[in-house]
Amino acid sequence: MRTQPACWIALLLLTAPAASSAAPNHLDVIVSQDRGLTPTDVKAIQKDLSKLPAAEQQRYLSALRLDPRIVGGDPFDIATAPWQVALVKGYAANRYQFCGGTLIAPDTVVTAAHCIDNPIVKNDPLRLDIVAGTAFFGEGGERIKVKSLAVHPQWNATNLDYDVAILKLAQGSTLGRPIPIDSDPANPPMQVTVSGWGALSEGGRSSDELMGVTMPLVDAGTCSSPESYGASITPRMLCAGVREGGQDSCQGDSGGPLVRDLGPNARLVGVVSWGEGCARRLKYGVYTRVSEVAPFILAFAP
Fold it and tell me: What residue stretches are annotated with the Peptidase S1 domain (predicted)?
């Protein structure tokens, strides 16, 4: 879950449950301008949130950390990443993409828990569909309904540990191609590739076209150093990127694939999870380590 662009924050609050009494007037302005957050925006959003009940405030504050995108990458043809899917709102006719996912079987998608446990989906499979088989999520490919979903039983929305979920589709994808998961630990030195339709820069617009970037894995010691993420990195997390920044996932890529050996021998090693900003120096992208949650995944797609 990356720092959110303004349009995502606005969407979360504008789709607040009926019990919410606060009207997030300031957020209407942000949506209409489709721009990044300023300090003034942050203060206004905090003011809006303060009007909500305490429990609801925490729910939204957790959700606001959602969502990374591709920075420093290149356009990807869907043939390069045929396992890539987009998560879109199931209750809207248009294809509003808010997260990514990975086909691991024709009827099974791996994504991030925070893409499911949030105010948009509300852990309800009827509230999301997936789009597969296209590099342009807004057109082409196939849109498939979700039959059921499961979030890892140890998912922790506070520290984002065990950030993984499974979607079972109402029918198998015919245009996408599943990717095997890698049950062996992925460690440096290793080059990995992340893909998605997220923002092309921190706070920027998302991409209509699938993007991807290849970068190195980062050892746990470096990623958990004080100047990086310190004690926030758990054994279920994997870091990737370059020290000086410039290559990363960003808002909107959450739930998408981190892959090793791109090509016929590709394996899924990570799920886009969180990070501080996008492509910042020493602030690497953080991914759910697939090898650590493999038993949960394989229970749904043996």
Answer: 70-302
